[in-house]
Amino acid sequence: MKVMVRIFKSNMWRCLPCFMSSILVTATLLLFEGIKAMFLCTMDGEERLRSSLGISTHLYIYVLLFIGVILILYTVNNYSRVRLRDYGTFLVLGSEKGSIAGMILAEYGMLSAVSYVTGCILGTAFLFGVRKVILSEGIYMELDGQMYLGVVLKTLFYMMMVYAAAVLMNAVYLQGNSLSALMRYDRKKSRLPSVKASLIGTGCGALCFAASCILLANKHIPPYIKMRYGLFLVLAGLFLCFTYIGRLLLYLFSSREKQYYKHLLRVKDLYYRFADNKNIMLLSFVINFTMLIFINKNIVEFAGTDSRYLWKYPYDYVYAVAEEHVKDFCGEIGEVKSEVDAYPCVFLTCVEYGEYIGMPVSAYSRLSGDEEEIRPGEVLGILQKHETDEDMLLLSGQVTIETGEGIRRFEAGKQENRVVFAAQQPESMGILVFCDEDYASLRDVWGGMSLVTQRMPDDTGEYEGHMKELARSADAKLFYSKAELMQKDRKEDITTLIFYVCMGIFLMVSNMAVLAVKVWSEIPVLSGKYGFLKKLGMDDEDVKSNVKEELSICMKIPFVLSFALGMCTLIWLFDSGGYSFDMRMILLFVVLVFVQGCFIAGTGNYGYRLVKNRIGEESGGMTWS
Predict the structure, then answer these.
(1) Are 284 and 252 in contact (CB under 8 A)?
(2) Which of 155, 178, 339, 442 sits CB 3.0–4.6 Å from 30 for a disulfide?
């Protein structure tokens, strides 16, 4: 243990970024896993796989894991470059590779244990803070001891996997390198991939992007499956392109001999700096793009959405009562000034899809205001969602139902998405419309009901209790109140908004921490490099400009790429008709870009000052303008 403590003390500067990144990743994963557990606990199985919030909570864990793995492996790799040289020294002094492997295991075990405990404490504080904010909005979120223990253990599993990869990486380097290679491992540059490998890698990246586009465009695959594998393919494509496309650009530039040889050293140096930092730049790009598009879009969509609920509920109250009670029931609710209508229906269960509402075409035409024609043996499928929604009611193109003539299969005719009386409620999601003859045979088996709709222009919610009591006394199978459903929707949207705001904060802080860790880890290298060049006579202004350029390359490239692609994506979203133009989305985009740009400028300047001070300390004082 004393040896381990001495090792950490002697490598404190290089160990600190690794320790800080581990704490950040642990805290972020624990916080998100806790929020995910609380949110998913309030949803049923269908909502988890189909709702926007359910899909997002499943998908963002992959984004955070991707961020965590890249960040920790990057800092561990930087730390390992120095430590591998030390391991080579131990081997020269007579240590066995087995004892060195034990030292690696103990070293990273201590680092991961301390950072895991610290990160859990920090993440737990933030988790209960977020829960308190959610509870203050009147939304109950359960988080008992068993759930919390599961979150802690899942986070531990993630971190163990990441550090197992780090230990394995060191073991491979130790086994596969000679003593002389280990002694100078910290000065090795990234290997230049061959043109053939770069072509294959870039082609595979392009194939990943193409496959993700095909997958996401397929309407017959469930949304959660599409998003999960689509995200994996996109991340794989990004990694391959970031790894290999730079070598292809360098090869294409080399064909222009005059320009290439004129700027040979600068181009080569730029490429090697890009190759050494490609993972951290990829990480920063993914975070920036996710914030600028996905987080931005969802925050704007779920903030201030009271008016958008009106299209979902065309009636103030909706009931379903038995046919024999409908006349008396309509008389009772009609005592209050309102517009009341009744439509025959049945509640039926089909073999493939579960329970739905069945209606004759005559009643449906009167309810919807559109004349429909349906042949015997055919069914019209109506999914009560917005017309732009991609979901379909009858995916197999047919439905099997018990009728008065036995089990019968109906072929799906036209299918459409429209809100008939109340949108997105489990009991009213699907409506099956039959010809009047087929409906009569279904009514004999399933029993006749009546769907009663009521509009009350002057209602502000004061009649809700009375109407609910009337529905209960009539033994109504279904009761919807517009005010109650809108309040429920608003609570769900506040929950979703809090989730995306938290995700935005997590990602922004993570990106800032990633860039800060990167700058911090570069300070010893740059101070040694430019301190030596300063002694050889390099001009102060050249030192200053080169230090700032090297510090900012890994920050500016992903920033510019995410800004350019983000603007293109927003233009495509608005032009394609998927989203109407929203100035709030543009303003939030500009604010996020401005904050990130200010941080990059400040971090680069701060890193330059640290390098300047360190060189000054090592050279006995120097003055830079």
Answers:
(1) no
(2) 155
What pLDDT was estimated at residue 345? Answer: 92
> Is 312 in contact with 422 (CB distance < 8 Å)?
yes
> Rounded to whole angstroms, how far apart are CA atoms 353 and 396?
10
In the prediction, which pLDDT does 238 show?
82
Question: Which two three-digit tokens encode residue 584?
Answer: 């709030």
Q: Is 24 exposed, middle or buried (0-12, 13-18, 19+ CB in 10 A)?
A: buried
From the centroid of its chain, how far is CA 40? 15
Task: Note the pLDDT of residue 3.
Answer: 55
- Is 323:450 a contact under the CB 8 Å cutoff? yes
SS3 state at 360: strand
3-state secondary structure of 348: strand
Output DSSP code: residue 315. S
User: Among 76, 390, 61, which residue's Cα sits nearest to residue 235?
Assistant: 61
The answer to whether 316 and 459 have CB atoms below 8 angstroms apart is yes
Residue 459 DSSP label: -
SS (H, E, C) 522-558: HHHHHHHHHHHHHHCCCCHHHHHHHHHHHHHHHHHHH
379, 434 Cβ separation under 8 angstroms: yes
How far, CA to CA in Å, does 91 sit from each of 9, 95, 180, 182?
A: 21, 5, 11, 10
Q: What is the reported pTM?
A: 0.69
Please provide the DSSP assignment of 7-76 as one string: HHHHTHHHHHHHHHHHHHHHHHHHHHHHHHHHHHHTS-HHHHHHSHHHHHHHHHHHHHHHHHHHHHHHHH
Strand 449-455, strand 398-403: pairing: unpaired
What pLDDT does 78 receive?
Answer: 65
Residues 6+ apart with CB under 8 A from 364: 343, 372, 380, 382, 420, 431, 433
CB 61 within 8 A of CB 32: yes
Spatial distance between the Cα atoms of 27 and 125, rounded to a whole number of angstroms: 9
Distance (Å, whole) CA 331 – CA 544: 86
Instruction: Provide the pLDDT for residue 513.
Output: 76
The series of mean pLDDT values per 10 residues for the chain, 625 residues long, is 56 66 81 79 63 66 71 68 68 72 74 85 86 75 82 86 71 60 50 76 87 79 72 82 75 63 59 71 83 85 61 82 89 84 89 80 88 87 74 75 80 82 63 90 87 82 83 87 79 78 80 77 77 78 77 80 86 70 83 88 82 71 44
